[in-house]
Every structure is written in structure tokens, then in C-alpha cells.
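User: Teach me something about this protein's shape.
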Amino acid sequence: MKDAPEFTDGEKVILFTSIDRRHRPTGNCRQVVAGVLQGPAAGLMICQYEGEKGYYLFGCDANWCAITDTYHQSIEEAMSQAEFEYEGVTETWRRHA
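Assistant: First, the predicted structure itself:
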């Protein structure tokens, strides 16, 4: 999977990771979109809108299009939620160079 973009739909991508064999979906969280239960994300991004204090954790498809999202007061809370959903993700976060 290619790297996530630096910006997406007006928010800056702070951290991103592909979800692959290094991770295990925990089943701790169920994501439902338009009444349809979603499977594991292809990638995760933690983003922030300019001027906002909080962060969004996005579950993305293989093209880094956001499918699901959760809002968090801090980047640490977003990272903790990601690990709650995908074991091993804490070790694979990346930043843009």
C-alpha cells in the first residue's frame, strides 16, 4: 500500500500506518457505516484540522479514503484507540518526512 497523503479533505495527516500481517484486529470495536458492519481497515490515519485542538482517527480503504472515524482530545487518545482496535499498531506508525 502506498503512503498516505500529507493532507486529506482539509486535515493534516499526523500519523499513518497500513494494516497488514503485523497487526491483529482485536474485535474490540464494531464500526458500522450506513447500517453495514465494516471489516478491518486497510490503513489508519491520525489527522487534525487546522485550528482544532482534537484529533481524528480514520479507518481507511486501500486508497486512503476514510471509511470510519472517531474523535479524540489528544493524539495519545487516538493512538490508544487505534491499539485497542488493532494490536501492534503502536509499533508501526509513520510520519511524513
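Now, about its shape. The helical segments are 75-85. The two ends are 17 Å apart (CA to CA). If you'd like, I can walk through any region in more detail.
User: That's plenty for now, thanks!
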